[in-house]
Write a structure and sequence with these properties.
Strand order of the largest sheet: 1-2-3-4-5
Largest sheet: 5 strands, mixed
Number of strands: 5
Helix content: 25-40%
CATH class: Alpha Beta
Distance between the termini: 28 Å
Order of helices and strands: EEHEHEHEH
């Protein structure tokens, strides 16, 4: 199933839903396809990992490589990335990604991992119905 995304230009937000099994090939392809678009530069991102059943990442090194690629694609306009990960494994991977992004000097995106959608939306400055 993998990754589905939509772009809300009015809110300057990329909404991402991950379902089923997530592979590193899918996440790298998503990163390159969406964040190379000039029309989303500086947008915030909301990634919902609530429906993930399995993550097929070969190593922590791939998480670091994703953080590096993502940082390389950042623009000068800062943005936020909220990851919703209610389950422990996904939450831990999200926190690892957050740490790698924070170590990247090129990164302009703030990354936070949340257990609930409500907390993620609040951090992004939105409410559930907004």
């Amino acid at each position: 199933m993998g990754i589905e995304h939509s772009i809300d230009h009015a809110r300057r937000l990329v909404l991402v839903s991950v379902r089923g099994t997530l592979t590193d090939e899918e996440i790298f392809a998503y990163q390159r396809a969406v964040w190379s678009r000039p029309d989303v530069a500086g947008y915030d991102e909301l990634v919902d990992m609530s429906d993930v059943e399995h993550i097929a990442l070969p190593s922590a090194e791939r998480v670091r490589q994703l953080a590096s690629l993502s940082s390389d694609m950042d623009t000068r306009t800062p943005g936020k990335l909220a990851i919703v990960a209610p389950k422990d494994f996904e939450f831990g991977l999200g926190r690892m990604y957050q740490a790698y992004r924070e170590m990247e000097s090129r990164s302009t995106k703030q990354v936070r991992v949340f257990r609930s959608m409500e907390l993620a939306l609040a951090w992004l400055g939105m409410r559930g119905g907004d």
